[in-house]
């Protein structure tokens, strides 16, 4: 990371030599927010039948609310980052959590399917901006050689949500009512606001901050290339994950009772990948990104070749989850290449990941509709990872030739 980029983060954050305890408390507050967002994003997938019954629609129609949330993320991240250019980061985090909490509580009270879909879109708006700003705040509090780990600790809330938060909220929704699940998520948002108020010091808006300066990120080719790595390179993970239940039952021949176990292995892999990848990223940022792209190509190909074997299926799903290791590194690289427009770049990373989600699920579904088995989604993932590796290689080559802007 350049000295200029470090100075930009430190001056914008306004945090002066925080103690280890202060850093831990701030990180906890930010991670609780990411835990709430992760739980709120994924819990709907296990409650679609209940939602469909409540509003009298089909389950596929109910699935449109997932797309509505994703669209909110894609739209909200860059728009909010630009419009909030002159807002202190602490204030912006509180605002994002307020919208998130209100959106989930309102979703729980939605009277019609149309209003529910609209509220899921609104709830998705602060998703990317929160993660982007939280990553910047976390990185600003630690030495340069620990920034990727700081970003990873914020993202740990998201990965834990896939393993613990979503199952708990889903169980609560099935036991009581799906509305209770969204009430719970809204409650996590309120708790996050309280923790931010208690632990995150007030910061100052950097002199010269403006909408025009944030928009300057869009003129930097390295920002676009790094977002491309996320949007294309990680589509494979979502291609496989979207149809892993079908692969488990129809290809590996396991019972439906094993689906939660396989999903749990994916969640465990994400958590392992996040922790290990964060440490690797501090050792070599580019090496971690490029290495994980190659890792994904190999493991996703192996997934397709061996998915009929239950043991290999479980092993590969775990290792595919470990592919999340590159995510903190990609988030940190965006902070490096964005210069003085870091909020827009960091927030847009989550727009890119939602594009990867949509792209991977669409291509995986298309291949299955052509008559191939669900295991073929591994080949889709491998191809997408190859394209991600190509984009990464182009980014590094241009950087070496002095074309970083």
From TrEMBL:
Entry keyword Chloroplast: no
Location within or outside the cell: Cell membrane
Keyword Membrane tagged: yes
Organism: Rhizobium leucaenae
Origin: domain of life: Bacteria
Coiled coil: none
Stretches that traverse the bilayer: 21-45, 65-85, 92-113, 119-142, 154-172, 178-200, 221-245, 251-273, 285-304, 310-330, 351-372, 378-398
InterPro entries (UniProt xref): MFS, MFS_dom, MFS_Efflux_Transporters, MFS_trans_sf, Tet-R_TetA/multi-R_MdtG-like
Protein name according to UniProt: DHA1 family inner membrane transport protein
GO CC terms in record: plasma membrane
Pfam families for this protein: MFS_1
Key words, A-Z: Cell membrane, Membrane, Transmembrane, Transmembrane helix
Topology versus the membrane: Multi-pass membrane protein
Chief location category: membrane
GO molecular function: transmembrane transporter activity
Residues covered by the Major facilitator superfamily (MFS) profile domain: 26-400
């Amino acid at each position: 990371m350049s000295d200029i980029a470090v100075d930009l983060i430190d001056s914008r954050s306004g945090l002066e030599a925080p103690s280890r305890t202060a850093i831990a408390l701030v990180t906890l507050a930010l991670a609780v927010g990411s835990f709430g967002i992760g739980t709120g994003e994924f819990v709907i997938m296990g409650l679609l039948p209940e939602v469909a019954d409540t509003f009298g629609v089909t389950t596929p129609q109910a699935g449109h609310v997932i797309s509505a949330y994703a669209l909110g993320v894609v739209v909200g991240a860059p728009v909010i980052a630009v419009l909030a250019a002159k807002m202190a980061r602490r204030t912006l985090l509180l605002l994002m959590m307020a919208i998130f909490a209100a959106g989930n509580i309102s979703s729980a009270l939605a009277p019609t399917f149309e209003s529910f879909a609209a509220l899921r879109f609104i709830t998705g708006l602060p998703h990317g901006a929160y993660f982007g700003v939280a990553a910047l705040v976390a990185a600003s509090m630690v030495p340069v050689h620990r920034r990727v780990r700081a970003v990873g600790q914020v993202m740990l809330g998201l990965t834990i949500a896939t393993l613990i938060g979503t199952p708990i909220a889903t169980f609560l929704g099935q036991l009581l009512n799906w509305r209770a699940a969204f009430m719970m998520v809204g409650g996590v948002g309120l708790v996050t606001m309280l923790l931010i108020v208690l632990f995150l010091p007030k910061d100052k808006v950097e002199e010269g901050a403006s909408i025009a300066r944030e928009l300057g990120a869009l003129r930097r080719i390295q920002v676009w290339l790094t977002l491309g790595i996320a949007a294309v390179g990680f589509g494979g993970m979502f291609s496989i994950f979207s149809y892993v239940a079908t692969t488990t039952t129809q290809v590996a021949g396991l019972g439906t009772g094993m689906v939660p176990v396989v999903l749990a292995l994916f969640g465990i892999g994400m958590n392992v990948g996040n922790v290990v990848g964060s440490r690797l990223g501090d050792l070599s940022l580019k090496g971690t990104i490029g290495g994980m792209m190659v890792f994904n190509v190999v493991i996703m190909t192996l997934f397709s070749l061996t998915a009929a074997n239950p043991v290999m299926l479980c092993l590969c799903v775990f290792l595919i989850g470990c592919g999340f290791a590159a995510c903190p590194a990609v988030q940190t690289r965006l902070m490096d290449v964005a210069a003085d427009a870091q909020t827009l770049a960091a927030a847009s990373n989550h727009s890119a990941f939602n594009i990867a989600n949509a792209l991977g699920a669409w291509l995986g579904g298309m291949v299955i509709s052509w008559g191939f088995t669900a295991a073929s989604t591994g080949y889709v993932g491998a191809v997408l990872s190859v394209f991600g590796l190509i984009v990464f290689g182009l980014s590094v080559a241009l950087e070496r030739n002095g074309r970083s802007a």
